[in-house]
Amino acid sequence: MHVDELLIQPEMTALSDNQWQTDELTIPSDWAQGRTAFGGISAGMIYQAISTQVHDNRVLRSYTTNFVGPLALNEPFRIVVTSLRTGKNVSQFTGEIIQNNAVCVFVQACFGTARQSGISVTNTDKHDMPMPTKAKFIPQIPKVTPKFFRHFDLAINAGGMPFTRKDTSFYHGFMRFTQPPQVITDAHLITMIDAWPPTLLQMLRWPAPASTVSWNLEFIHPHKTVSGHDWFAYQVHTRQAADGYGHTEATIWNSNNDVVALSRQTVAVFD
């Protein structure tokens, strides 16, 4: 199923003055990540639901996702959106995916207006990686490669393949959708940024489960217009790992070499 089909959702129903829901949603098995749905698509779907309740020109500033429990594929779930507060400049929302009366994914999103300010610090971070011409990463291996990988083109420039016993714990490369969406929205960016495997997997000799526990995204504005065919550059490094948990930080650039997002994840690995 194309990503746009999952991001287009039924109209939300009001539960109260500050809470809404949409139900009877499902994620098909081609978006599987082990026993659960791919985290990027569930986070993207929640964002899409939250964004319907943002009615002015406030843009997404930060987006924090906690993956609470497995989200079963091909089984119905609902998304509940709650407005915590809308002030003069900033709006705070939560979003939840609930399946079988249990919260599977929980999000807090912060939207803010642009304001006049005497403070201006230009981001000068650039990458020097050559633009790829085609995908170059993990082939589709039954029962090893996650099914959701078929929806993304990943081109690795540096870092090791998962389960190859490398000493490295970083990735440098590029990403895009295999089937380009009509437009790239923040929902698409959220979905795509999570496509890379955890950095720690390249340090393992044999396949082992790993999952993201929490994930924070910060968005740099203004966004420049990009094409659904464009490659986005990605560099992620492990800051620390011990006791079965790793902490990573990533930078994401658009095709103009402008930073569009910063990503931080806490990952559990069961080796």
UniProtKB/TrEMBL annotation:
Domain Acyl-CoA thioesterase-like C-terminal: 136-269
InterPro entries, sorted: ACOT8-like_C, Acyl-CoA_hotdog, HotDog_dom_sf, Sec_Metab_Biosynth-Assoc, TesB_ACOT8-like_N
Superkingdom classification of source: Bacteria
Native species: Alteromonas confluentis
Protein name (record): Acyl-CoA thioesterase II
One Pfam family cited in the UniProt record for this chain: 4HBT_3
Ranges for domain Acyl-CoA thioesterase-like N-terminal HotDog: 27-112
SUPFAM superfamilies associated with the record: Thioesterase/thiol ester dehydrase-isomerase (SSF54637)
PANTHER family noted in UniProt: CHROMOSOME 23, WHOLE GENOME SHOTGUN SEQUENCE (PTHR38110), THIOESTERASE DOMAIN-CONTAINING PROTEIN (PTHR38110:SF1)
